[in-house]
Design brief:
By secondary structure, this protein is α+β, with helices and mostly antiparallel strands. A hairpin with a 2-residue loop joins strand 18 (290-296) and strand 19 (299-307).
Length: 632
């Protein structure tokens, strides 16, 4: 069974509410003020029983110019539009505005209903019908059936009902296998139940007991009860008008315009990249930085339109734009929206969301425009690649990109796998992928950092890994930095040996003098055993070139041949490792060891015993307890 929402549109007092009552027997004017004034102010809801036993929801939207905001709230979920025109008045200003809104929202199916036919003669009826046909030319209603009716006499009501049934049978299925989403158009409290929202479920399925999240506030809630057409149900489906009762949310937590959705399925934003279209009969133009009212679902916010191409959009024109919003919204790529002029408040255009989580764009940036062309015309795979391309400098994970373009994480992973095989992206760690172009640019930057280091330290095997992370990716988590280094090691841009990072082809090249110094230093430290000479004394024995002697000494430390204990004491690696093992064995045997015992065990002085123990404490091998050390 396909769930369908039927929406009315048309000028005030053209008989929309009476028509719904004639079709369904349901009165949609529910407010006292509405009944008193005889016009619909808020959205009204009814349902139409279908031949297959199902029910189509009907939204009665306001027609008065002052209530267009409410009309927009209802129009977003419409599958089949009924454009209502009264035979005694014909096409009026709100008829034109509502038709434009329906066209901007890209509603595909509709019926033109000529109401109040009992109030005019046949000739007048034909003139009005001809005028309507002229007005809808070039829109989705150009070839739509036009059905004359009278809600008073019942003329044409059954014909309209049958045409509605026929068109519903032609509609495609809803998106049921993606996370549910409900724009909130009403919120109220019911005694004994608590907070209730109503809205049109535009995607997915919702079950009793489901956890939900309110966007943009990102408050969590839980579904207590669901009603569809005033009947309690266990599950609601896309295309249904629903009322949802929450067990742990207050009325003050929710406002009209919020979106109820699966936790983590949406992003909130204050910028959105769009294809912006101006109505062909718009009386206003949209200039760069024009202030507009932005309508999406049931939400209205003010925004500034930054035109990314050109300076002015006139009637009938279209361009890429970035809308910079004054409040947060939650939307998805592919969603439709409407914009109205700031003042006077007139509908001027609308369009489709291309990127709901963009970075700030520069006007005229051809690379940005090319990216938007991909997002507008490309496949989901193309969009995932573009999202990774633009997100790479910010290290956005694949999970973010998946939500950005309305894909499940499984879909995104499968497409990322294909892109990786094609060599377009590279996997760094977990679900973090980078575009190959960015990875290559970062690789060049890493090479330059190491090249400068090798020039300054020609006798060192490489830079310590931690120092590389600090200089190369100072603001990234260690897992990301390590993943980047592992990738560059895999593609043979760098090598990592004993925790030292160097360019892949780098080798320490010793001249004759440096080679002599290195051999002599190694011998001095080996001969020194557990009581080596001070560093300054070792360097002094190397001759006049103290700069080179220092470089050689640093190279031996960097290569791990020497272990630095403090500024003036180093041990040969062989002696240090032996000392550590002997100390650990004695602690295991007797539970602890004292400074004097270390001195006697190694046959050295108190000074060297102390520096060894302090180094072991620093490296978390031992811990001082009183006057002794124990193993950690």
């Amino acid at each position: 069974m396909n769930n369908v929402i039927i929406g009315t549109a048309g000028h005030v007092d053209h008989g929309k509410t009476c028509l719904i009552r004639a079709l369904t027997g349901i009165e949609t004017d529910r407010l006292r003020e509405e009944k008193k004034r005889g016009i619909t102010i808020e959205l009204g809801f009814a349902y139409l029983d279908l031949p297959d036993g199902g029910r189509a929801g009907i939204i009665d939207v306001p027609g008065h110019e002052k209530f267009v905001r409410n009309m927009l709230a209802g129009a977003g979920g419409i599958d089949l539009a009924l454009l209502i025109v009264a035979a005694d008045e014909g096409v009026m200003p709100q008829t034109v505005e509502h038709l434009g809104i329906l066209s901007l929202l890209e509603i595909q199916h509709g019926i033109i209903v000529l109401t109040k036919t009992d109030m005019v003669d046949e000739d007048w009826r034909e003139l009005v019908a001809e005028d309507i046909r002229s007005q809808v030319k070039g829109t989705f209603l150009e070839d739509a059936p036009l059905i004359p009716v009278s809600s008073y006499t019942g003329e044409g009501i059954e014909d309209l009902r049958q045409e509605i049934f026929r068109q519903i049978s032609l509609l495609g299925g809803k998106k049921m296998d993606i996370p549910f989403r409900i724009p909130v158009d009403r919120v109220f409290s019911m005694e004994g139940f608590g907070t209730v929202i109503t809205g049109t479920m535009i995607e997915g399925q919702l079950k009793e007991g489901d956890e939900v999240m309110l966007y943009p506030g990102e408050k969590m809630g839980k579904v207590r009860n669901i009603q569809v057409h005033s009947q309690s149900v266990d599950t609601a489906y896309a295309g249904q008008r629903v009322a949802v009762n929450f067990s742990n949310l207050k009325k003050s937590d929710i406002q009209r315009g919020d979106v109820v959705a699966v936790p983590g399925s949406m992003h909130t934003t204050m910028m959105v990249d769009v294809r912006l279209n101006v109505l062909k009969d718009a009386k206003r133009v949209i200039k760069n930085t024009s202030r507009l009212h932005f309508y999406h679902g049931s939400r209205e916010v003010l925004c500034k339109a930054v035109l990314l191409e050109g300076d002015v959009l006139e009637a009938g024109q279209s361009a890429y734009a970035q809308l910079r919003l004054e409040e947060e919204v939650a939307l998805k790529a592919g969603d439709h929206f409407v914009v109205r002029f700031y003042s006077p408040l007139e509908t001027v255009g609308g369009g489709v969301v291309l990127d709901p989580s963009p970075f700030k764009r520069r006007r005229g940036d051809e690379q940005a425009l090319e990216g938007l062309r991909v997002l507008e015309k490309g496949s989901l795979k193309d969009k995932i690649e573009q999202g990774i391309r633009e997100g790479s400098p910010h290290y956005r994970p694949l999970s973010f990109v998946a939500v950005q373009f309305g894909a499940s994480l499984e879909e995104a992973r499968a497409l990322a796998g294909e892109l990786e095989q094609e060599g377009k992206i590279v996997r760094i760690a977990g679900d973090l992928y980078l575009h190959r172009d960015f990875a290559e640019a970062q690789g060049k930057r890493l090479s330059e950092i190491l090249r400068e280091y090798h020039t300054a330290n020609p006798l060192k095997e490489g830079m310590k890994k931690e120092e590389v992370r600090t200089r190369f990716l100072p603001r990234q988590e260690q897992a990301v930095a390590d993943g980047m280094l592992a990738y560059y090691e895999k593609v043979e841009r760098i090598k990592i040996v004993n925790g030292l990072v160097s360019l892949f082809k780098f080798k320490v090249k010793l001249d004759e003098e440096a080679s002599r110094m290195m051999k002599e230093m190694e011998k001095i430290y080996l001969d020194g055993g557990y009581a080596p000479p001070a560093t300054e004394d070792v360097l002094a024995q190397m001759g006049k070139d103290q700069k080179k002697a220092q470089q050689v000494h640093n190279a031996l430390i960097g290569a791990g041949t020497l272990v630095r204990m403090d500024a003036q004491i180093c041990f040969a690696r062989q002696h240090y490792d032996e000392a550590v093992e002997r100390i650990k064995e004695q602690i295991r045997a007797q539970g602890q060891i004292t400074l004097g015992e270390v001195r006697d065990l190694l046959g050295t002085s108190r000074k060297y015993a102390m520096v060894i123990l302090e180094t072991l404490d620093r490296e978390k091998v031992t811990k001082k307890v009183g006057d002794a050390r124990v193993l950690l």
